[in-house]
Structures are given as structure tokens and as C-alpha cells.
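pinned: reference chain
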Amino acid sequence: SVDCSFTRGVCDWKQDADDDFDWNPADRDRGDGYYMAVPAFVGHKNDIGRLKLLLTDLKPKSSYCLIFSYRLAGEKVGKLRVFLANKKTAPVWEENKGKDEKWRTGKIEIFQGAETTNSVTFESERGKGKTGEIGVDNVILISGLCPED
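pinned: its C-alpha cells
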């Protein structure tokens, strides 16, 4: 498995230069490192911020599982979407409200055909809310299918 977490991960993360705002590091509650977050008050409603994970060396015709922690805290905080580079048009994963402030786990199957996926983009869309944040942490890529819970 490949650790793409932000504190000591080995992956290549890039801020999108053509979006409306950047994701920023935020300290974890327990004080052991940080996660990437977009506070609710950044930008204007429907503004977009994208954080891209560049993937190299994924083998064609094989499966991978991207596992990550996410949190949508606050009322009307916005949307979190995940896009795969070879399927640009529609998100492969989307969440638009948190039931509470808790961290949850997201999983995405990445099936490689002859064309390999060379990036995964985490996109935050600003909502109407003024408090809370959208956060992403503990991004891990494993080969094979996603495990059952």
C-alpha cells in the first residue's frame, strides 16, 4: 500500500492553479500531524478548490482501492467530490452534508484498463454556510479491490 497522507506520506500532491481557492493544512485534534481542509468561510458560494494527487506507476489492467478519511462539518458547508483523471466529466464519489462533525471513511475502486489513471482530484465546493470545514486525511492507495467494512 502507498501512504499518501499529508503528514508523512510519500505522494505527490498539487494545488490546482485554475480554481478559486487552495486547500490548507489544519492541525489534528490529537496534535499528531495535520490534514488538509477548506474552512466554510473561504471564497464565495459555489467557488471550487481542487487538490490533486498525482499517481505514477499504476499498472494497466489491474485494480486499486483509494481509501481516505473525510469530514464535512457545519451546516450547508458545501460538497466534497472525487474525480479520476480518465473519467473527467462525472465525480466517482460525492458527499454533500455531514450528519455530525465526525470523520468518516470513503473508498473508491480504481480499475485500470489499457489507459491508466494518472491522478485523483479532491474537489471542494463552497456552500452557503459560514462555519465548519471540509477536511480530507489519511489517503492510502492499496492494490486490489476495496476491503469490505
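why pinned: The chain has a mean pLDDT of 89. The domain at 2-132 is CATH 2.60.120.200 (Jelly Rolls).
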